[in-house]
Amino acid sequence: MQHIFLSILITDEPVIFGILMAVLALLFYTSQSENPILRKFYGIVPVLLLAYFIPGILVSIGLIDGHAEGINFISKRMLLPASLILLTLSVDMKAIMSLGPKALIMFFTATIGIVIGGPLALWIVSLFNPDVLADHGDASIWKGMATVAGSWIGGSANQTAMKEIYKAGDGLFSAMVIVDVVVANIWMAILLYGAGVSDKLDRFLKADNSSIESLKKKVTDFQAANNRIPSFTDLIVMLGVVFAFVGLSHWLSTAIATPLDTWIKDALAADPTSNIKFITSFGSDFFWLIVFATAFGLAMSFTKARKFEGVGASKMGSVFIYILVATIGLHMNFAEMWADWERNSLLIIIGFVWMLVHIIILLTVAKLIKAPFFFVAVGSQANIGGAASAPVVASAFSPALAPVGVLLAVLGYALGTFAAILCAMMMQGISA
Asked: In angstroms, rounded to a whole number, what is the distance separating the alpha carbons of residues 354 and 320?
């Protein structure tokens, strides 16, 4: 591996993990600074983007080794399923329904726009460059796009899940991470600008935004009623329950995936052209790990366990997500990406076409049902940005509405893997 400036200086994984945590701490500390220069900087460059890029830069210049298998294992196999449980156990279906049908319609419209947009973008670009449909093994473009589908329907946790399920190569994944953060953050910047002129946009959409004021009051009351200072026992019990379900998810995933994988491989060996190849993901123990973790989180949301949200369940889940994001950054090597700029620029074009399809579908439906722009923005970002950035967009309208972004983003986490698999199967079908 060629590095830009240095040879690898640090290969000790505990030290690398310490550096990643220090980077995250520095980013969040400085993002809350009152310094006008820093406030302006973070107003342009989101923390999430830097959490991806800085570890990649450190790897690219040769300061740290990106092949930290121990860190990768803990992040993907322990923190990822734990974060999914923590972020879904707080789902309140009654609260989601109280947002009104237009909020949910715009959320699901955003999901559909991404599911349809992926294969449509792949097909459109293939008209000019048929090679995008070619089979390149773990470097096949549809596999990389599957990881973006996971990210854009739920966030980074689902992105990593899709990478593992469809075995996208690290080089391709690194390129798709760039596509993800560049395209998604440009759209997020547009949404933040739209929040400042939402009254004009609501007039264009002919929407009545009076329900937003009522929504602000409901969210503020819910937040005040549930938040409390967690005790040590609260945190131990919460994490104990969560990781017990993570362990159970591992056990069940292995028990189901092992015989399924054997059956699928035997069937394909007997008939390589069989349509069973489209369900190869069901033989992945990682697929079932994510399914069971999400299912357990949703099941807990109907029990008293959902009260863990009051002691910081979603905050702890977000901490795990950011550690995962920084770990993903270890796989980015900008020197390698520059060496294949022709392919990477093509991937970015596909990403913009994909996002354009999403936006067109979103605004068309909003116009038809006269949905306030707030529901458009948060519905879209709850899919594309997940719990990390949906609250940011929601709070751009009003700080009291930030939890609405989290609430819809949690729904995105619950649906993300399943919807992304549907999108991936469509893209795989086009490529085949």
From this structure: 29
